[in-house]
Every structure is written in structure tokens, then in C-alpha cells.
Amino acid sequence: MTNSTNTEKAFELATEQYESLGVNVTRALERLREVAISVQCWQGDDVVGFEGNDGALGNGLAVTGNYLGRARTPDELRSDLELAYSLIPGNHRLNLHALYGEFNGPVDRNEIGVEHFAGWMDWAASQGVKLDFNPSYFSHEKASDGFTLSNADSGIRQFWIDHGIATRKIAAAMGAAQGNPCINNFWVPDGFKDTPASRKAPRERLAASLDQIFAEALPAAHTLDAVECKLFGIGSESYVVGSHEFYLGYAISRNKVLCLDAGHFHPTEVISDKISSVMMYVPELLLHVSRGVRWDSDHVVTYTDELQAIMQEIVRGEFLERVHIGLDFFDASINRVAAWAIGTRNALKAVLAGLLEPTEQLEQLEQSGDYTARLALMEEQKMMPLGAVWDYYCQTSGVPVGAAWLEKVREYETSVQSLRSSELGTANA
Ligand SMILES: C[C@H](O)[C@H](O)[C@@H](O)C(=O)CO
Ligand SMILES: [Mn+2]
């Protein structure tokens, strides 16, 4: 018996088990196929980008590890992404940061234009990949005092306002070209290491700057603006201007997409519990699915309870149309293509688990007050044969089943990544 036959047999048995609980497995797989995860470009090169300034990472972002093979050019990054996508079932998006343009010389952030992303747009069209975008408010001399859009200096603020306006135009062009809105996510690192005297003034400046950036209405069919909060960063331990409350209020009052990053809250605070609340008040939600570990908000996504809970909440709330799932992690201590494969496959496995849950039955038990059976069924769910359905999904999607994808990464590491010297770019220490 071949392995693929085994996968099919296991799937048939698993289907029987799920269907005995009233779950439609075929429908779950059809819905999973529609889920496009926005894969973050920055995992591929340790958030260095292509501005040619040696990529000193700043503003609270830090990458540790020195694994061989960091992508040093747009072509290398695209090649690495192509391998990653070939290991992940379904059609997924690419989340590009502004510092990943193809600049051919010094172009400051306030001067970037669509032309610098033409190569990415052509490549994305050729791959059937849709693009999302982000202004880059970090790793720049005008962010070196820790403040950008909320800087007390009006000249610096204007520079960053112009950057934000430029990125909206680029995102709109991407969205028009791909016939699907490009989500342009604003994460602004501004904050104080130590206790501020005025928490209010920088927040007033940030809101005013954002209002200027968003003053021009752009077609929602082309681009959607998102805003991302954070509790603290390295160097902004005491105060971050763009806190959760700030952006929740901003997104609601300006009808913007709210971005929740799973690593941006207190270590015991979870975003899964926030989804159903914020969805009552914001039009759409962007998630940065990540894994916080102590001080770091960006470990590779693993199949944690919280990951499962996030995807459960999206499915249970019937939010798949209104929640955009993006990833945000960067780890330079392991093969970077493997990091994408591990994190994205895990995110999809968790969506699948949510889609295979007998939600109606659980809700009926809850409504009837039978919390004993609700807990019992939830716990029994954990032993259901999710892996058999996942393997079948991978097989029928033409991507490696089980850990077979790792062999492809190893081959690529030997034949491509290990030949990259660190001279073209700077390896992170
Ligand atoms: C590079 C990303 O935009 C960045 O990680 C941001 O989304 C974030 O989460 C900062 O902590
Ligand atoms: Mn994030």
C-alpha cells in the first residue's frame, strides 16, 4: 500500500468520525481552501530590507540568531518565498514592508513610489499571490529618538506623514492591479523607555498625524488602512503612544481596520478573547498571528492553545470574511523558509481544527446549561483525528504530507542558501 493510499484511508476513517458529530468535512476543506494567510516578507531576511543601509534594526525590533542563508536581494527573497508557498497548502498572500522596495540607489522613505514595487507586483501576478503592505516606521535616522508620527518636531512628523501617504498610494496601486484590496498596516513604534511626564501630548500628535495621512479617501476595493497597537517594546518599556486603547478608539472613530498582534499584550492577555468584542465595533480586523515568549513578541507560530483559540473564535463568530489573517514572526536561529512553513502550516491547521469543530452541538449544550457535556465534548475534540484530515488536505493540494516538506528545505539549503555569503548583506548577530 502506498503512503498516499494510507493518507486516503486515514482520511476516510477520520471523516466518519467527524461526521458522526454532525461535522461536514468536505465543506470544512472547501472553506479552508478560501483562507489566504498573509505571509510576512520580513522573516526571510531578518527585517533588513533593501534600502542598502546595512539594515541596523531599531525601534524595539530585534532579531536574534545567525543561521546561514538570509535572503540578501529581492530575487533571493522571492525564490525563498516560492519554495515556502510550495510547502503550504492553499493560495496565500505576501505582506511587504516599505523598506523592501527595489530602489537602485538612495530613496528616502518619503519619496518611495509605486515604481519601486513594480518588480514585486509583476512577481506577485506571475505567482497568483496577492500583496499587502506596510509603511516602515523603524530602522531610520529620523526614528532614532524613538518618535516618528508623534515626534514633537513638526519637520520629523511631516517626513513620516509623507511616508504614510506614499505607502497608501502604493498599496492602492497594488490593490487595483490585483483586483483585491491591499491592506496597508500602520505600526508606529513611538514610546518612552521611562515614565513620561505627558502621556497625552504624543497621543494627540499621533492621532493628528494619522488623520493627515488618511485625509484622502481611497477606494476600499483597492486598499484598506489598518492600525496596530503594542503594549511595550525594547526601549519603550514604560509607554507606547499607540496603545490598544488608543488604536481601538481610533479605528472605531475613523472606520479603520484594527490590527491585533498576538505578541503585543501582557504575557497572560490573549487576543482570542478580544476578537468577538472588537468585531462588534470595527469593520474588519487584521491579525498578526505571532507567539510571544517573555520579552519577545515574535517567535515562530506553533500549535499552541492560543493559536487554536484564535482560529476557533474566527470560525465560531463567522468572521472569516472580515478577519484578515497575517503572520508576524522573525527568527534568524533556524532556516527561514522552514520558519515560514512551520508557522503558516500551523496557522492553517488551527483554522482547520476550528472548521471541524461541532460548534452547533457545543452551543446547544451551552444554551441548555449542560456545561458538563460542553467541557467533555471540547476535551474529546482534542483527540479527534485532525492530522488525518490535514494530511489529506496537503496531499490533495499538491504539497508535502507530514514532515516531508523538511527534506525540500534541506535540499534548498544545501544547493542555494548555503552558497550565500554574508558579504552582500549583514548577518544579524
Ligand atoms: C515588522 C512588523 O511590521 C512589526 O513586527 C510590527 O507589526 C510589530 O509587530 C512590531 O512589534
Ligand atoms: Mn505585528
Write the layout of secondary structure elements.
Layout: H1 3-19, H2 25-33, E1 38-40, H3 74-86, E2 93-97, H4 118-127, E3 131-134, H5 154-178, E4 182-187, E5 191-192, H6 200-213, E6 223-228, E7 239-240, H7 244-254, E8 257-261, H8 272-278, E9 285-289, E10 291-293, E11 296-299, H9 305-316, E12 323-327, H10 336-355, H11 359-367, H12 371-381, H13 386-396, H14 405-415
Parallel strand pairs: 1-2, 2-3, 4-6, 6-8, 8-9, 9-12
Antiparallel strand pairs: 5-7, 10-11
Helix pairs in contact: 1-13, 2-10, 3-10, 5-6, 8-9, 9-10, 11-12
Characterization of this structure:
The chain is α/β, with parallel strands linked by helices. The protein contains 14 helices and twelve strands. Strands 4-6-8-9-12 form a five-stranded parallel beta sheet. Strands 1-2-3 form a three-stranded parallel beta sheet. Helix 2 packs across helix 10. The chain starts with a helix and ends in a 14-residue tail after the last helix. The site of the ligand C[C@H](O)[C@H](O)[C@@H](O)C(=O)CO has 11 residues, from loops.
